[in-house]
Amino acid sequence: MANAGIQLLGFTLAFLGFIGSIASTIMVEWKASSYAGDNIITAQAMYEGLWKSCVSQSTGQVQCKVYNSLLQLPGIVLGTRGLMMASIIFSLISILVDVVGMRCTTCMAERPEQKDKVALAGGVLFIIAGLLALVGVSWYGHRIAQEFYNPFTPTNSRYEFGSALYVGWGAACLTMIGGGFLCCNCSGGGSGKAPNYPVSSSSGQPARDYV
Fold it and tell me: For strand 31-33 and strand 62-66, is the pairing parallel, antiparallel, or unpaired?
């Protein structure tokens, strides 16, 4: 039988990962302008995200521009968008499923075995959501590092990891850990029923004496 405390812990971690994935997706600091050079102008800082780019002046003024054309966006931005949105959708479905399957809820209380299976399915969906977010953030980070170390990239066009990447990595880990708690907790529980053994024909019926 599943442990309600472990289920609640796993659900809490996965839910925090879900919130972190949303925050990472809407943040603009996916990559930030690099200052690794001698001729870098530090009067302004440039940031690029999945939905818009911003320029922060030394005076504190921030100007942002939303990406207007979808077809002009690089493939890395479109791909990361899709992975992060898929992760958020999977996490949302997992939350709805686990609300039904967790032991601390009253849904399907009369069928504990089916309830545990529903919670297990929600945990698997959380793990898939975490993997999608991890792939998206890591893919984007790999492209930033690849362009940074490319000798043909101009010095003033190099970027470094932004804070959104770290939020995304942390959110992906929390989501997978929470889903793992839900899966391990449900898969290790017994069904609560005694095993059924076949009844022997010799002992199943009383002996009869015939005259």
Answer: unpaired
pLDDT tens digits, 151-166? 877 777 788 899 999 9
Structure tokens at 194: 């005694």
CA distances from 63 to 32, 44, 46, 202 (A): 14, 11, 10, 88
Q: Measure the CA–CA gap between 40 and 158, rounded to whole angstroms.
A: 10
For residues 13 and 20, the answer to whether their CB atoms sit within 8 Å is no
Separation of alpha carbons 139 and 182, rounded Å: 27
For the stretch 13-36, pLDDT in tens is: 999 999 999 999 999 999 988 776
CA-derived radius of gyration, the chain: 26
Specify whether the CB–CB gap between 101 and 121 falls below 8 A: yes
